[in-house]
């Protein structure tokens, strides 16, 4: 999804541009308006903006100054400048700025302005196509250095004591990772929800590498970043600000304030850009992913714990299997730490596939389960192989129960404590029956939970809209309420309900307008504000188009 921010201090012009582009039916583009450069900056601080259409001459901060603020936050944003006069000096400055794609006179008309927006969208699309072509990814297949970098970061995940990090800077430098070991790090995980057409392990391996490159390419504009595979479904990103932030005792208060600003700016950039990572995966790779990001930067020896909490968080909110976009408040304590790598031999590989399919709610898990039982049965005569197989099966079951948040329920509903009595003398058939029934129970629980999740998300969306008609009802704001990607939310809502969110908002505004017209003595400008219209005349046109009469006519007829 793309976002266009329209900025103008003249309400008549701004409302006209906003209404025009709302009706222009640009596919998957959200339109936002700001009545001043300062309001625009608030939006730039809140969400990622792809296109800015701005007046040049505004009080307090003009368009050229606004460009600097835009570039500081979103370097890839395309800017279109509007002016009422043919001012050569402004035009000359604007053309020299690489983010300005056009300089327009307001007198040129809406068709020229629309054409300029279309050119900006085309430019964004071409840049994405160039960056994410499959051939481009194949040419970037990892060599020795990326593998060494990945191995070091996986090793860091196992280090939980401060003294384990003592030599980290030397190790980072040796494999040319750009991080500072004495600085905090922002952990992010990207989880594949739907593989779609990528069925072979070779394809999935390449696509995981492609996802990592998408994340690195988009985030490296204003951050130091490295993305690696954690397992066959999850990619982890490690992020620090681009500039070095010194943490020595001699740091002055001014320097500490500057460091805090840099961290806040980096976090803001990361939060906004991760939405683009999701969108690029969907558009360029045909891949559905969820992203979980820490709300706090953490020390290197706490990264493993933070990633464990990020992995768990996807199951702690409604919408499992959807394209989630979650900010997670990392806690100091965690009751368990999931295994990161657990693939040893053919039996372990099949067991890992069972885990992935159960976690994803894939009903084809039984195929992997049968392969696991057949592969394991061949080596059970060896007591050490038998012990390793039994232990591995128990570990994976407990891990999946924790990851799905079903551990406590399993203790009560499937007699999980029976596992405590399993040893190498337990019959293989008894063990297979127990694990098959346990996994069938989990799949059943997942199906029920998914239906409940969808209902809960719809209830949350509708409740928010009904009680905030006078507030911001942009797709971005509603998506934040349910922790979903805005573009995904739009598609999902239409698939579930058969109509768009904007249609539901429209209906609720009409409904609420009628209630206020008949059930209150509110004046027209008050009703207009209560249902989300800053312009009373626009409210009149909206109501008449929806009902066939003006608000006053409706009140008079019904009374």
TrEMBL record:
GO molecular function: DNA-binding transcription factor activity; sequence-specific DNA binding
Pfam family, one: HTH_18
Modified residues annotated as 4-aspartylphosphate in this record: 55
UniProt cross-references to PROSITE patterns, sorted A to Z: HTH_ARAC_FAMILY_1, HTH_ARAC_FAMILY_2, RESPONSE_REGULATORY
Keyword Protein transport: no
HTH araC/xylS-type domain mapped to chain residues: 459-557
Xref: SUPFAM superfamilies: CheY-like, Homeodomain-like
Keyword terms of this UniProt record: DNA-binding, Phosphoprotein, Transcription, Transcription regulation
CDD domains per UniProt: REC_YesN-like
Lineage top rank: taxon: Bacteria
Protein name per its UniProtKB record: Response regulator
Species assigned in the record: Paenibacillus amylolyticus
């Amino acid at each position: 999804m793309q976002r266009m921010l329209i900025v103008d201090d003249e309400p008549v012009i701004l409302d006209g541009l906003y209404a025009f582009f709302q009706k222009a039916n640009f596919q998957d583009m959200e339109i936002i308006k700001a009545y001043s450069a300062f309001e625009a900056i608030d939006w730039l601080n809140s969400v990622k903006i792809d296109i800015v259409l701005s007046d040049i001459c505004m009080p307090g901060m003009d368009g050229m100054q606004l460009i600097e603020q835009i570039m500081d936050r979103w370097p890839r944003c395309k800017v279109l400048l509007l002016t009422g006069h043919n001012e050569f000096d402004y035009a000359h400055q604007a053309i020299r700025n690489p983010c300005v794609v056009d300089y327009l006179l307001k007198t040129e008309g809406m068709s020229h302005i629309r054409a300029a927006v279309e050119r900006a969208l085309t430019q964004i699309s071409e840049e994405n196509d160039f960056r994410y072509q499959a051939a481009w990814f194949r040419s970037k297949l990892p060599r020795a250095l990326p593998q060494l970098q990945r191995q070091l970061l996986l090793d860091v995940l196992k280090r939980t004591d401060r003294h384990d990090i003592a030599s980290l800077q030397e190790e980072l430098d040796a494999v040319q990772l750009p991080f500072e070991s004495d600085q905090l790090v922002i952990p992010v995980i990207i989880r594949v929800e739907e593989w779609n057409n990528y069925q072979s392990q070779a394809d999935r391996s390449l696509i995981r590498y492609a996802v990592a490159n998408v994340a690195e390419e988009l985030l490296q504009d204003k951050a130091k970043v490295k993305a690696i595979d954690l397992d066959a479904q999850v990619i982890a990103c490690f992020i620090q600000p681009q500039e070095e932030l010194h943490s020595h005792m001699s740091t002055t208060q001014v320097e500490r304030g500057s460091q805090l600003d840099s961290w806040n700016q980096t976090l803001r950039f990361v939060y906004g850009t991760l939405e683009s990572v999701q969108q690029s995966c969907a558009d360029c790779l045909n891949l559905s992913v969820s992203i979980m990001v820490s709300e706090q930067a953490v020390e290197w020896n706490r990264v493993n714990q933070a990633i464990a909490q990020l992995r768990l968080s996807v199951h702690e909110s409604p919408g499992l299997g959807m394209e989630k976009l979650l900010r997670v408040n990392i806690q100091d304590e965690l009751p368990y730490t999931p295994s990161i790598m657990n693939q040893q031999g053919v039996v372990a590989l099949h067991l890992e596939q069972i885990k992935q399919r159960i976690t994803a709610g894939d009903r084809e898990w039984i195929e992997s389960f049968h392969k696991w039982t057949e592969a394991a049965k061949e080596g059970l005569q060896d007591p050490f192989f038998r012990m390793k197989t039994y232990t591995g099966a128990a570990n994976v079951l407990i891990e999946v129960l924790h990851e799905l948040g079903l551990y406590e329920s399993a203790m009560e509903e499937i007699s999980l404590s029976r596992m405590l009595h399993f040893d190498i003398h337990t019959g293989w058939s008894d063990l297979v029956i127990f694990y098959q029934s346990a996994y069938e129970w989990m799949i059943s629980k997942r199906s029920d939970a998914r239906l409940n999740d969808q209902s809960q998300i719809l209830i949350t969306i509708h409740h928010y809209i009904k009680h905030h008609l006078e507030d911001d009802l942009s797709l971005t704001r509603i998506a934040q309420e349910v922790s979903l990607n805005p573009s995904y939310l739009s598609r999902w809502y239409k698939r579930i309900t058969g109509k768009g969110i904007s249609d539901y908002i429209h209906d609720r505004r009409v409904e609420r307008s009628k209630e206020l017209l008949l059930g209150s003595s509110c004046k027209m400008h008050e009703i207009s504000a209560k249902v989300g219209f800053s312009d009373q005349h626009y409210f009149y046109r909206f109501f008449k188009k929806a009902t066939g009469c003006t608000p006053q006519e409706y009140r008079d007829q019904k009374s």
